[in-house]
Write a structure and sequence with these properties.
With 275 residues, the protein is an alpha+beta fold. 28% of the residues lie in helices and 9% in strands. It has a domain at 131-269.
Length: 275
């Protein structure tokens, strides 16, 4: 009797069987997962069947409030590390305001051991303007009467020329408005004392009031200038007595008086001494 030999299954058949079993398990797992996902909405709808139209009610709105978060806490100081600590950078120093310069010491002024006081001359007291009455003017020389001794005749200024220093001087003073104003003011001062004319020179120039260089200073300057530019022969003529110079031809005109005794016109140019 022949002996039957048993053959072992092929390797390819076993692998195919394993693959079919694995495929079957995957299908079963997928179906179970699908059924579970389909059951969840059915359960939800079943529990909310009282909602209108079979729809679930919407949840209540959530109110959100914006609140400013609290400030972060200050950082905690770091523990000191071993070793030398690094110095923190210092803030820049503020510039110092400029300091005022110290006051300069004043050098002491040496004081002389002896101080001689200077005594200022006392201001002279005001003096009334000198005036002459009508009786004192009797025989005085006027313009046109000549400038010789006693008023008689006219002296020679040169060949073919005659001198009438009184008229020459009176004309020059009348043409100067400042002289006329000063003479009028002086005339008013002496008229209150009953005088008829103002005495300006009687050998020395007479101070008028207490003002040095004012008052009749303009009158004196005008007389000196006119006499100084007169011809030499006329300036050296002698004069006897007083000379009256009128500022106008009308009545009550201011009058100025020069001279006393025997004198010359050049005497008006000499040293002037104020009384």
């Amino acid at each position: 009797m022949p002996r039957m030999e048993t053959q072992s299954p092929r390797p390819e058949t076993d692998r195919a069987a394993r693959m079919r079993r694995a495929r079957r398990r995957r299908w079963l797992a997928g179906g179970a997962s699908l059924a579970l996902h389909l059951a969840i909405p059915l359960v939800f709808l079943a529990t909310r069947s009282d909602a209108p139209d079979g729809l679930a009610e919407l949840p209540d709105p959530v109110v959100l409030s914006l609140v400013e978060p609290p400030p972060p806490p200050p950082p905690e100081p770091e523990p000191a590390a071993a070793g030398p600590a690094k110095a923190s950078p210092s803030p820049p120093a503020r510039p110092e305001p400029p300091r005022p310069a110290p006051p300069r010491a004043l050098r002491p002024v040496p004081v002389p051991p002896e101080v001689v006081p200077v005594v200022l001359p006392a201001t002279p007291a005001p003096q009334p303007i000198a005036g002459l009455s009508e009786s004192q003017l009797v025989g005085a020389i006027t313009a046109g009467g000549g400038s010789g001794a006693g008023g008689g005749g006219a002296g020679a200024a040169g060949e073919g020329q005659t001198c009438d220093m009184v008229r020459r001087l009176q004309t020059a003073l009348r043409e100067d408005p400042e002289v006329r104003a000063a003479a009028a003011e002086a005339q008013r001062s002496v008229a209150g004392a009953g005088k008829a004319a103002v005495l300006v020179w009687d050998g020395d120039w007479i101070r008028s009031g207490a003002q040095e260089g004012k008052g009749l200073a303009g009158v004196r300057q005008a007389i000196i200038m006119e006499v100084g530019f007169a011809p030499e022969a006329c300036r050296r003529e002698p004069v006897q007595g007083r000379v009256v110079l009128s500022m106008s031809d009308g009545p009550g005109s201011p009058r100025l008086v020069l001279g006393s005794g025997r004198w010359r016109w050049t005497d008006l140019l000499g040293r002037r001494i104020a009384r």
